[in-house]
Amino acid sequence: MKTIKQNILKLILACLLLVALGGCKKFLEINPDNRIRPTSVEDYQAIMNGGLPQAFHLFTELYTDNYRFYDYPDYNNANIQSWLKPIYLWSDEYISNNAITPEAGWRKYYNSIYVANVVLEGLPEATGDEAHKASLRGEALLVRAYCHFMLVNIFAKHYNEATAATDLGIPYALETEKENNKQYKRDAVKTVYDLAEKDALEGLNLINDALIAVPKFHFSKASAHAFLSRFYLFKGDFEKSLMHSEQVLAQNAAIRDLFKDYDAYMATGLYNEFADRYVSVDQSNILLMNRTLEWNSFFRSGLYANEYRSTFASADLRGRLFTFNSNQTPNYNVRKFRSLRPSDGQQYSDIALFVVEEVMYNAAEAAIRKTSPNMQYAIDKLNAILVKRLRPYTALQLSDFPTTQALLDKIIDERNRELCYEGYRWFDIKRFNIPVSHWTENGTIHLPANDLRRVFQIPVPELTANPLMEPNPR
What we know:
Layout: H1 4-20, E1 29-30, E2 36-37, H2 41-50, E3 68-69, H3 78-88, H4 102-122, H5 130-155, H6 189-206, H7 221-235, H8 238-251, H9 258-266, H10 271-278, E4 286-293, E5 303-304, H11 306-309, E6 322-324, E7 332-334, E8 348-355, H12 356-369, H13 375-386, H14 404-419, H15 425-431, E9 436-440, E10 443-447, H16 460-465
Antiparallel strand pairs: 1-2, 3-5, 4-8, 6-7, 9-10
Helix pairs in contact: 1-4, 2-4, 2-5, 4-5, 5-6, 6-7, 7-8, 7-12, 8-12, 9-10, 12-13, 12-14, 13-14
């Protein structure tokens, strides 16, 4: 949280660059003492645009059972391997000041929170259309809620009603920093959830879809409901999770037609073209997306999908989205990422933060975990997706699942097959205490149930700069 002020200045400068390029009208005025001061709702919208959250959680995939390390000394990129392998080994001692680490995720989520608070504090005095101001306030509240929710689910224990009031969470920032070197204590997990819920529900009521120019890059009614679908699922309030899931599906129940894109691109060897389309504004199933710095498309990391790919049924087209990069050193990677390389030399892809399919899995899980389980409803939701994934298609039947646990296991498995390498598998592993084993050149290591390493450590720079910030136990 200590670098946030510097980063907000960078964001404002970036917005000023947009003005120079004609990207927005009269963005900022210069005061007599040369301070930049936004004055209109359009100014604050431009600031908010620069702080919208990206998929800062992608590093969590390294903790999961979707990867295996292969020691290819003549092929793996030593630098990338040095960045990623410590995280794969569940170590707190990864390379600092790197863009693809838990430290970076912590910093970037709090940067977005800071931007949201700048907007929330400045909007009351801003000039401009009141309806636009209200909707922008709604978006800022949703951004603040979403970012805190992701942080608490990465750097704290999973929500447990019995212990949430005392479990260490993360600081919930309700305002911008007003003093230098301010120190922060960790709020309890329950406090973070309560404040995020309040922000998200108010934001949902204020959002006006008619005022959003490019809805897939901003919180809309549908993506706000999708967030609450996930929020209440993680909290264990399954009735509310199901209700918000149904709200999404009433507005958008479009499931990605994988057959269409697979036949046009993957089956013909146009892998890059397929990746270009995987997350785009043209895909009707995308509810919220953003371009994100990522490492999942790097093909010489030492971490590959060979074992996970082999678990897909031959009829499941999702298993064919994995391709070889080298036959001499077999290394499968998933073709979901565009891997754009602008002038900074990093890799970026458009990443979905919410999709219709996730909402359907949330609804299916909530339906069988609520007080009165509805197994047929859950099976219908799975089949609605599988009919566009399996060739030939065989529908799931109620008789296939003798218990609700068997069906829950299927939902968890299907969610991973659909969203693998997008950073969501870890949250299911954490929620359900699923053991994980990782292979290294020195043998297999294990992350058993209830291991303390299941909670990412608060980044060392934050612990060093902020003595009030308690570390997670180890």
